[in-house]
Amino acid sequence: MLKENINTCNLCPRNCNVNRDEKRGFCLTANEIMIARAALHFWEEPCISGTRGSGAVFFSGCNLRCVYCQNSKIASAQNGKIISIKRLSQIFLELEEKKAHNINLVTPSHYLPQIIKAITLSKQNGLSLPIVYNTSSYEKVNAIKALSSYVDIYMPDFKYLNSALSKRYSNAPDYPEIAKAAIDEMVNRAGKPLFDKDGMMKKGVIVRHLVLPGCTEDSKQIIKYLYETYGDDIYLSIMNQYTPVNTSDTFRELNRKITDKEYNDVIDFALKLGVKNAFIQEGDTADESFIPEFNNEGV
After folding, report:
1. CA-CA distance, 185 to 239, in Å (whole number)?
2. Which among 98, 86, 227, 221 is positioned nearest to 165, based on CA atoms?
3. Which of 18, 65, 68, 118 could in theory staple to 23 by disulfide, Cβ–Cβ 3.0 to 4.6 A?
């Protein structure tokens, strides 16, 4: 059972062991829920966004904070508004009234006890939408187990298989093994993908991977691992939308978009493996606006 008041926070693999009422851990958040946006979102995979949009709730703070993060202002908890559990449950219901296909919890790990209470309350008041858990995969297995009765669709990232990359870009050398275990538990909980008559996902797992500049070999190894482990029991989402935001000399290798050749090389590799259940991106998506305004809309 996850405690709502986190006096010694060890919710995630950082194991900060801090009283979040008095001190901020790695995620930079207190016990209160802080969100920066709650609105219809049209930039997810087609079976999540559909025609009416996904009801995306963007939580402030993050337990990974990658150096290339496109949402760095909310990841560092600089943007957002503090709300109650009751208000969060109302937001879920308001998104349903706006005809969202689902409730999409974006970077929620550090608020799990509060989110579980909010989902319970909103369901008591009539919420019937699928719940999407949209995460970096830097999660403890027991946290995923605690979500079993509340989450229908898991949408985890698999960022790195190379621990040197995860250490350099996310200060998390243990990320590969943590992510493997977390995703394995998600697949066990969700089961095989299930869609409605309109092609909207109702249950299942979509594992996302963002191809980084110069990291195509790691991308291939991630795809190979996922396909050999889960086959068609999961969907992959292989993304080319990397946009340079950190232009410091320290990470000079990241100061460019990925090339068409890099992305096509990864996609060709996936096809040769036999991957069929996958989403890919076409065109220069790095020039499109995948980053919404974090202006407290819907909060």
Report:
1. 23
2. 221
3. 18
φ, ψ of residue 59 in degrees (nearest 5): -85, 140
3-state helix, strand, coil in the chain (%, to 5): 35, 20, 45
Q: Are 207 and 236 in contact (CB under 8 A)?
A: yes
Per-residue pLDDT of the chain (299 residues; tens, 9 = 90+): 455 456 799 999 999 999 999 999 999 999 999 999 999 999 999 999 999 999 999 999 999 999 999 888 898 888 899 999 999 999 999 999 999 999 999 999 999 999 999 999 999 999 999 999 999 999 999 999 999 999 999 999 999 999 999 999 999 999 999 999 999 999 999 999 999 999 999 999 999 999 999 999 999 999 999 999 999 999 999 999 999 987 788 999 999 999 999 999 999 999 999 999 999 998 665 455 467 778 888 89
**In a 3-state reduction of DSSP, which class is residue 91?**
helix
pTM of the model: 0.95
Identity of the amino acid at 66? C
Contact between 141 and 177 (Cβ < 8 Å): no
Q: How many Å is the Cα radius of gyration of the chain?
A: 18
